[in-house]
Amino acid sequence: MxxxxxILSLVVIYGVAxxxxxxxxxxxxxxxxxLATVLANIEVIILIKAFGMEQTLGNVLFAVTFLITDIxxxxxxxxxxxxxxxxxxxxxxxxxxxxxxxxxxxPSGNDTAMAAIKEVFSNTPRVVLASLAVYAISQIFDxxxxxxxxxxxxxxxxxxxxxxxxRNNGSxxxxxxxxxxxxxxxxxxxxxxxxxxxxxxxxSYLIYIFTTLLDTPVLYLARRIHDKQNINDIKVxxxxxxxxxx
Length: 246
Prior knowledge:
By secondary structure, the chain is mainly alpha-helical. It has helices at 2-24, 26-43, 59-75, 78-102, 114-121, 124-157, 164-188, 194-240, and strands at residues 47-50, 53-56.
């Protein structure tokens, strides 16, 4: 069941990102990115076994943030992609402050939730701070590398639109090595033994390889949505311009 749920989650999450872009443009992607970074920090404390490997949840949600910055880089520009990263950083800081404030309250005698909240969120600061640092480093690096690949392919092949798959995979797969290594060490060193840490790193990166390869067709679809909407916008503008006879 774990494997099936992970695959279905990936399809749903990527589908939601694509739908958000179609319905709301880059604002929709900003919202999905903010939600994904917060929810992934909750999921990541859960350790499961799937595909024969121990792994933390949250990998799929973090993967969609890389897809989002790639869509924004490709369709909206580098500035928009970096804005999504900064929104993610802001969201994580706000989540950290808010979740820790919950633990300061003295619960009512009729409360049934505080014990569970403390159990979950007492470990949040280390995880979120690790995630925050790693997210900022890896995502900014990913956006930078995406545009480096883009400049390289454009100069070499004299075409701005070709080799989308190369800049997508070439930036994300490299960035995910940095992301996975830093997060595993910062978040879990001392919590798990070395064997478990290596298992978490290996399984997490294998999942990222899988999610990165699968996000390429989604990125092509996003660019198609962008192109189609631009054509429609041009038609609307043209229809608003009065003709000479008018």
